[in-house]
Amino acid sequence: MSIQVYVGTSARTGGSISGVFRRGASDGAWHHLIDGVADDTHVHAVTVHPDDPATVFAATSTGLYRSRDRGGRWTRLVEPAAGEQMWSVLVHPADHRVILTGCAPLALYRSDDAGETFRKMPHPALGERMVGCFPSRIMRMSVAPGRPDELYAGLEVNGAMRSDNGGESWVDCSDPLVEFSKLPFYESAILSKDKAEGMLDVHAICSIPGATFLALRMGLFRSVDRGVSWQDLGIGQHAAHLRYGRDIVVSPWDASDMFAAVADSSRGVAGRLYRSRDAGSTWKQVDHSVKVQSTMMAVGLTAADRRQAHCASRKGQTFSTLDDGASWLEFGLPEGAGSAVAIACG
Questions:
Q1: How many CA atoms lie within 13 A of 241 on its CB side?
Q2: Radius of gyration of the chain (CA)
Q3: How far apart are CA 186 and CA 204, in angstroms?
Q4: How many CA atoms within 13 Å lie on the side-chain side of 339?
Q5: How far is C-alpha 307 from the chain's CA centre?
Q6: Domain 4-345 has CATH 3.40.50.300
Q7: pLDDT for 31-46, tens place per residue?
Q8: What DSSP designation does 302 have?
Q9: Mean pLDDT over all residues of the chain?
Q10: Residues 6 or more apart whose Cβ sits within 8 Å of residue 234
Q11: Where are the domains of the chain?
Q12: 149, 168 in Cβ contact below 8 A?
């Protein structure tokens, strides 16, 4: 089967249909994949297994699910505790037997046997910096290349944290983010009265050798000292109204080749896909010839074909390039689909 594109949707903030949708990379025919998934399940993250493209994981409001047949049938691997939801899933890049899923409220589950069993890790000893309309949640995780026990997690709305022991304990990396908010340019308060809120509103995190990156409400940031300090990458210089960072990913073929999804706001009317070929130092818009009409939410890449990149906007537009950005195809999700919040391919 050719490369497939998966989009996770949630009807919480629009539309009426949640779940995972799938299409071929160059095909506009969508399939709603709900067999085995609990009714009214909101999908927050989707990941294709790096070794087996038929195996797909979905982190959802009703637990962590796995499909072994490209989404044809789902099995729940982790049933959340009362009041808990899964928001992220990571197949460890150095050991694919290790699978992690991050939760709201703040919690982490880990499997060391390829998903057959999971254990709940000790609760991260971090305080809730923001008390808003939802509890802090682990939006994305990454692993430091060459250091398999060094994990990073991006938290909405609670900054970032690092583990040096595979998730057994965590160090808060958020104080330097709060320092930024003392300058008017980095102030933002929507859910609370605390103007540090925007700098703590982290949506994505990724790591390359020697650096870790954040996509957050106030832009894109990089740390070269394991989260002790952060540097603003200045993504807003390209378009002042487009610095809301929603996703940032490293290509599986070159650690210096990165993509980032930015927009005007969480539920905005414009967005862009940027690419950096120098480990985040400079960025260039690559989504030419398409008009993004809402928040650009997520980017999906596959090692199977480095010419391909796929992205999704909140209101259901999805875009694909099959020729390394020379041209783009647009495929809208079916009518009624909820907000598109995640994309993956393989």
A1: 6
A2: 18
A3: 18
A4: 18
A5: 21
A6: no
A7: 999 999 988 899 999 9
A8: -
A9: 95
A10: 219
A11: 4-345
A12: no
